[in-house]
């Protein structure tokens, strides 16, 4: 079940400056296909702000996020 899935992200916290390119990875404790999901969603959260949903293939500006690369 989805409730039993554990997600881990590396690195846990990432501090960057404007214009920096960053890499972050995410791993699940079980196959997403086992819960009939073939995708993952990414969020960006800045200190003191609510998370913003990052959707691959959509410009971040449409989602209220600053311009940049999201995957």
Strand runs, count: 4
Shape: elongated
Instruction: Give the strand order, joined by hyphens, for the main sheet.
Output: 1-2
N-to-C SSE series? EEEE
Question: Radius of gyration from the CA trace?
Answer: 14 Å
Strand content: 15-25%
Strand pairing plus helix content: what structural class?
mainly beta
Largest sheet geometry: 2 strands, antiparallel
Low-confidence stretches: none
Fraction of residues in H or I helices: under 10%
Measured distance between first and last alpha carbons: 25 Å
SS element count, helices: 0
Mean pLDDT: 69
The number of domains is 1
What does this protein structure show overall?
- By secondary structure, the chain is mainly β.
- The protein contains no helices and 4 strands.
- The protein is 0% helix and 20% strand.
- The strands form 2 sheets. The protein has a two-stranded antiparallel ribbon. The protein has a two-stranded antiparallel ribbon with strand order 3-4.
- The radius of gyration is 14 Å and the shape is elongated.
- The relative contact order is 0.17.
- InterPro entries: Ig-like_dom_sf, Ig-like_fold.
Question: Which tags fit this structure?
Answer:
single chain, 71 residues, mainly beta, two-stranded antiparallel ribbon, two-stranded antiparallel sheet, 4 strands, 0% helix, Ig-like_dom_sf, Ig-like_fold
Entry summary:
The protein contains no helices and four strands. It is mainly β and 71 residues long. It has one domain (2-63).
Secondary structure topology:
Blueprint: E1 7-10, E2 25-28, E3 42-44, E4 52-54
Antiparallel strand pairs: 1-2, 3-4
